[in-house]
Every structure is written in structure tokens, then in C-alpha cells.
Amino acid sequence: MIVADRKPIEEIIEQVKDCKKVLVLGCNECVTVCEAGGKKEVGVLASALRMYYANKGVDNRVDEITLERQCDHEYLEEIREKADQYDAIISIACGVGVQFTAEKYHAIPVFPGVNTCFLGVTEKRGLWTERCQACGQCILAYTGGICPVSRCAKRLLNGPCGGSSKGKCEISKDTDCAWQLIIDRLKAINRMDLYEKLFSIKDWSKDRAGGPRKVIREDVMI
Amino acid sequence: MRLNYPASVKIIRVPCTGKVDVIHMLRAFEKGADGVYIVGCKEGECHYKKGNYRARKRVEQAQKILNTIGVGGDRVQMYNLSSSDAPLFVKYANEMNERIMGLGPNPVKLKKKKAA
């Protein structure tokens, strides 16, 4: 899932302090799971904003809506009739949702309510860690299901480097060496032969280096 | 024992303090409460294991938010006691009552009244 973290309320207030009618727009997908932008967080942020405005002595309106997703036309269209009445929309979906909302509601300012962080997993409640960088050319088949692109600080395809010590990365004692994990896993599945294989230079044009990316599937287009 | 506690305290019963979320505390202030305190079982004695620890963390989150928006985080507190400890319940009720009397009314409520 896409992992996001809540922005400080001060930062959000700074963006919308002069707005009269504000919509806090949540998303029922990834940001709900990582407890940053779901219905519950919409309620907390909207309540805090209402009290902030009331405390300032201004008569403002703050409404709450949580959509199924903010990255699909059909769900974002659900606010088509209502959107015009707001001076600002605070989208607490990931950066994708914020941008798609801004694209669809061109004349209404849309502000982000979260910092979108990475593609990751819930290790335990309150701890999310990165697993994928969406590099566009998956090599997990050869690395025992552990991704050196996202989990090695140097993105080494032929590791480990000299900074690996006792299974940890030199950048931090809390960070596992991805290549140690890969070797441990390859041993466990009895595929150390894959470790013998040298990776040639990766085609980074499929990553962000090639500019904004597209997936085009004519077979599913209507 | 028939102990008395301040009449300003309104009790809302929940199955466990772990049920109380940040939004419940914020809504209480939005609706005009001057203070909110959560009374949970003693730490380490939660029937559901971690309910009162969760409540404490949520109280801390609510305090942060209330400080940011100018309502004052001191208006929310977490207390722990044994369910049969009536004298301590009264002590905490008095303590909270005094604290809120010192802080004065909820500024949001005052501003809303003025505007109306």
C-alpha cells in the first residue's frame, strides 16, 4: 500500500486559515490502513479545524467526506455537485489523490493533509516500512523476494557493499542490510545459484529517471 | 460510603477506556465541555490488557491538538484507579474540577456564544 504520515495540524491551518468553507476529504484505501487519511482522521482534523475557527471568532464551515478512493474518476465524481461551494479542499489521501482531486476540480484550491512517504507494509500497528520503489522492472525473482532497489541504501544490484556489518547497513544499526537478507533467503530456498549470477546494468528509464510513467493496456480499454 | 463529587462532572460509561478515541474527546470540546478526563483501570491491570495504555496515548494526542488550536491541552487528563476505590475517584474528580475552574470556560464555547 501507499504509506503516508499526517501533516502537523499547524501546517494545515496555515494553508486554510483564511478560507471560509473547507472540505476535509478522506480516502478509504491505503491511507485508512496506515491511519493517516481515513474517515477517523477526517473526523479528527475537521473537528480540530472547526474549533480553531470558532476560537478565532470566525463563522466558518468545515465539512467531512470520505471517498472510497481518490484515484478513480467514479469516486471523485461523487463530490461534483458539492465541490463548488468550498473555498478549499484538504485532501488527506496520498499525493495521487490530492493531485487527481486538483485536476478534476480545477478552480478549487486543493491542499495536502498528509505527507506521502513510500510503498510499504504494516510490520505492526504504528510501524510501516518501505518495500517497493516502483522501479518498473521487477527483479524479485532473482533476489529471493527481497528488493535491493528499495531496501539497499545504495540500490546495489550486486551486493553487499563493504558497509554491511553483522547483517546491518552502515547508514544505521536499525537498518537491515538488504543483501544479507537476500543471501539468507536464497540459502533458505536453496537457490544460492542465483547469487552467482551477475546483474547487468539496470534500465533505469523504466524508473523515474525516464520521466513521468504510463501503463497503457489497450486490451482492457473500453 | 456515600461520597460526594462535584456536580459539574458528567459520567459517560464505556466498556473500557481503550474504546475512547481522540475524536470523542474533541467532540466533547466542540459541544462545549470545559474539560474531559478519562478514568481507566490501573496500569497493568486492564482486563483487555492494553486498553488503558491506548487511552493514555490518545489523551496525549488530544492534548497536542488542543494546544495547537488554542483550546489548551491541560483540559484533558488521564487518571487511573481501581474500580472499587471510591475515595480516589472523588479525589480525582475534585482535582479535575479545580483544574478546570482555574483554567476557566472552554474558549470555543465562549466564542460560539458571542457569535450567536
Protein architecture, described:
- The complex is a heterodimer of chains A (222) and B (116).
- Chain A has helices at 9-16, 30-33, 39-56, 73-76, 80-83, 95-104, 148-151, 178-188, 193-196; strands spanning 2-6, 21-27, 61-67, 88-91, 110-112, 114-124, 127-132, 168-169, 172-176.
- Chain A has 222 residues and is α/β, with parallel strands linked by helices.
- Chain A folds into 2 domains: 2-118, Rossmann fold (3-Layer(aba) Sandwich), CATH 3.40.50; 134-210, no CATH class.
- A 4-stranded parallel sheet of chain A has the order 3-2-4-5, sandwiched between helices.
- The two termini of chain A are 27 Å apart.
- The model of chain A has no long low-confidence stretch (mean pLDDT 96).
- Chain B has one domain (17-103).
- Chain B has a two-stranded parallel ribbon with strand order 1-2.
- Chain B is 47% helix and 9% strand.
- With 116 residues, chain B is mainly alpha-helical.
- Chain A binds chain B through residues 8-10, 13, 40, 43-44, 47-52, 54-57, 59, and chain B through 21-23, 26-27, 29-30, 65, 68-71, 107-108, 111-112, 114-115.
